UniProtKB/TrEMBL annotation, chain A:
Single GO biological process annotation from the record: bacterial-type flagellum-dependent swarming motility
UniProt signal peptide: none
Coiled-coil residues: none
PANTHER family recorded: FLAGELLAR BASAL-BODY ROD PROTEIN FLGG, FLAGELLAR PROTEIN
InterPro entries in alphabetical order: Flag_bb_rod_N (IPR001444), Flagellar_FlgE/F/G (IPR020013), Flg_bb/hook_C_dom (IPR010930), FlgE/F/G-like (IPR037925), FlgG_G_neg (IPR012834), LlgE_F_G-like_D1 (IPR053967)
Key words of the record: Bacterial flagellum, Cell projection, Cilium, Flagellum
Gene Ontology CC annotations of this record: bacterial-type flagellum basal body, distal rod
Name of the gene encoding the protein in the UniProt record: flgG
Family: Belongs to the flagella basal body rod proteins family.
Name listed for the protein in its UniProt record: Flagellar basal-body rod protein FlgG
Domain Flagellar basal-body/hook protein C-terminal: 215-260
Transmembrane segments: none
Flagellar basal body rod protein N-terminal domain span: 6-34
TrEMBL record, chain B:
Species assigned in the record: Azospirillum thermophilum
GO terms for biological process, alphabetical: bacterial-type flagellum-dependent swarming motility
Domain of life: Bacteria
SUPFAM superfamilies according to UniProt: Flagellar hook protein flgE
Name of the encoding gene: flgF
Record-linked PROSITE patterns: FLAGELLA_BB_ROD
Domain Flagellar basal-body/hook protein C-terminal: from-to ranges: 190-234
Compartments, record wording: Bacterial flagellum basal body
Keywords: Bacterial flagellum, Cell projection, Cilium, Flagellum
Name listed for the protein in its UniProt record: Flagellar basal-body rod protein FlgF
InterPro entries: Flag_bb_rod_N (IPR001444), Flagellar_basal_body_rod_CS (IPR019776), Flagellar_FlgE/F/G (IPR020013), Flg_bb/hook_C_dom (IPR010930), FlgE/F/G-like (IPR037925), FlgF (IPR012836), LlgE_F_G-like_D1 (IPR053967)
Quaternary structure and partners: The basal body constitutes a major portion of the flagellar organelle and consists of five rings (E,L,P,S, and M) mounted on a central rod. The rod consists of about 26 subunits of FlgG in the distal portion, and FlgB, FlgC and FlgF are thought to build up the proximal portion of the rod with about 6 subunits each.
Similarity field: Belongs to the flagella basal body rod proteins family.
Major subcellular site: other
One CC-aspect GO term: bacterial-type flagellum basal body, rod
């Protein structure tokens, strides 16, 4: 019976929905995390009686046919790129992006990864690195005799050296944007990679048109709204239950048919 | 003579297919833009004898409930919902397709595409391309798409005289031979919202219970008819 398979497609889709929501909730406090949402599509339709077919010699047209759908599938797990809240930490090396763009990170393999998580630290050599120790691109080295570091909205890193009055520019942060940032591939550790779907990377200074501004001493929190996630979780659970009821009903009907004497 | 069994059978066949339709509704209860479907039955009358009439049931049509589904807020600037009549137009290799599912996004060429990656068409029949280095996409109520650099284009929102003539082709898309009409003035595009499916799960659940009971009662009819014929054969056979 077709409904058995249809119920199964519904259960599979809802299972993935719950998995997506779980990952959102698990990352509710992950810096720079962007929530994901499962999107569904109806499957193909089978025509038992085609719409527009004639129903008599006089050419009367059937206004609506009999078409039965084959269920549902997950079309995409899309990332929602809404800005997260800015959480003030007062740590000099915590940088948040207000607007669009990604920090560029050099992976150990030499490839470039992209991140919104600006919880940077200093390496023993004074290079600005991520929590995993991967250097920020372009490399920014803070001299060991620096007493204060300031990063302004346009990404200039200014240090005040011991015994000096004037600040000194030691580097310029660059942000990366993409034609379709939702098409980036997540590789974990808050990092993303460029894909054919995202389009070519475009770099520019923070604050220039199309690029966000850098906020020092703040971190971008995840954009997960926990209350919303919980309500979606309940909806998903109920949907899963109802799809299992389809299977139960179909099974009972098949049982009746098989008990025919 | 065995007509009553066939009548019950016609009911069982129809009800089974009705369950398929209800199942599809439930499976798609979280599918954006999905429209609930109902099966229509008609009587199929046959006159096997001069004064005899036998009435069967036939699943005649599946109609769509065209009510607007509830809206949810998503926070994605390219999630668009239509309030009132109308369909978004997307481009496929086989001509335009129409959809109510407004979960759009950008592709790598910054074209607005639907969930399946098909370009969404503007009123000039061309895909809408968001210029590079713009971040602020605004869609106004009449479907005009603009960024901070100005207007990009206008969404093509089509309506049709008879929406029931439209055929589902899956993935939330419809195809039709009818000429598209411009959308009425009261159709508005809402940005950041998504039209959910208009399936009412409770109604579908009760439908399913009803289907199950009807299937069982048709089954009992077949059973008792079978019993009746058997008794008849046994009794008539004994007297010989």
């Amino acid at each position: 019976m077709r409904s058995l398979a249809i119920g199964a497609t519904g259960m599979i889709a809802q299972q993935l929905n719950v998995e997506t929501i779980s990952n959102n909730i698990a990352n509710a406090t992950t810096t720079g995390f962007k929530k994901q949402r499962a999107e569904f599509q109806d499957l193909l339709y089978q025509n038992f009686r085609r719409i527009g077919s004639t129903s008599s010699d006089a050419g009367t047209v059937v206004p609506t046919g009999v078409q039965v759908g084959a269920g549902v599938r997950v079309a995409a797990v899309a990332r929602v790129l809404e800005q997260g809240n800015l959480n003030v930490t007062d740590n000099k090396f915590d940088l948040a992006i207000n607007g669009s763009g990604y920090f560029q990170i050099t992976l150990p393999s030499g490839d470039t990864a992209f991140t919104r998580a600006g919880n940077f630290k200093l390496s023993p050599e004074g290079i600005m690195v991520t929590a995993d120790g991967y250097p920020v691109q372009p490399n920014i080295t803070i001299p060991s005799n620096a007493v204060d570091v300031a990063v302004n909205a346009s990404g200039e890193v200014l240090v005040k050296l011991d015994g000096q009055v004037a600040t000194q520019n030691v580097g310029q942060l660059q942000l990366a944007t993409f034609a379709n940032a939702a098409g980036l591939e997540a590789i974990g550790d808050n990092l993303f990679l460029e894909t054919p779907a995202s389009g070519q990377v475009v770099t520019g200074a923070p604050g220039t048109p199309g690029f966000g501004r850098v906020v020092q001493g703040a971190l971008e929190t995840s954009n997960v709204n926990v209350v919303q996630e919980i309500t979606t979780l309940i909806t998903a659970q109920r949907a899963y239950e109802m799809n299992s009821k389809i299977i139960k009903t179909t099974d009972e009907m098949m049982q009746q048919a098989s008990q025919l004497r | 003579m065995e007509n009553s069994i066939y009548v019950a059978l016609s009911r069982q066949m129809a009800v089974q297919r009705q369950l398929d339709v209800v199942s599809n509704n439930i499976a798609n209860m979280n599918t954006a833009g999905y429209k609930n479907q109902r099966m229509l039955f008609t009587e199929f009358l046959e006159k096997p004898g001069l004064h005899e009439k036998v009435s069967f049931v036939q699943d005649r049509a599946v109609v769509r409930d065209l009510q607007t589904g509830p809206m949810t807020q998503t926070g994605n600037p390219l999630d668009l919902a239509l309030t009132g009549q109308g369909y978004f137009t997307v481009d496929t290799a086989n001509g335009p397709r129409y959809t109510r599912a407004g979960n759009f996004r950008l592709n790598d060429q910054r074209q607005i595409v639907d969930g399946g990656g098909l370009p969404v068409l503007g009123d000039n029949g061309q895909p809408l391309t968001i210029p590079p280095n713009t971040t602020d996409i605004k869609v106004s109520g009449d479907g005009t798409v603009s960024t901070e650099l100005g207007q990009v284009g206008k969404l093509n929102i089509a309506t049709f005289k008879n929406e029931q003539f439209m055929t589902e082709v899956g993935a939330g898309l419809y195809v039709t031979d009818e000429e598209p009409q411009p959308a009425p003035a009261d159709t508005k595009v809402a940005q950041g919202l998504l039209e959910q499916s208009n399936v009412k799960p409770v109604v579908e659940m009760t439908q399913m219970i009803e289907i199950q009971r009807q299937y069982a009662s048709a089954q009992r009819l077949v059973d008792s008819e079978h019993e009746r014929i058997r008794t008849m054969i046994q009794r008539l056979g004994r007297s010989v």
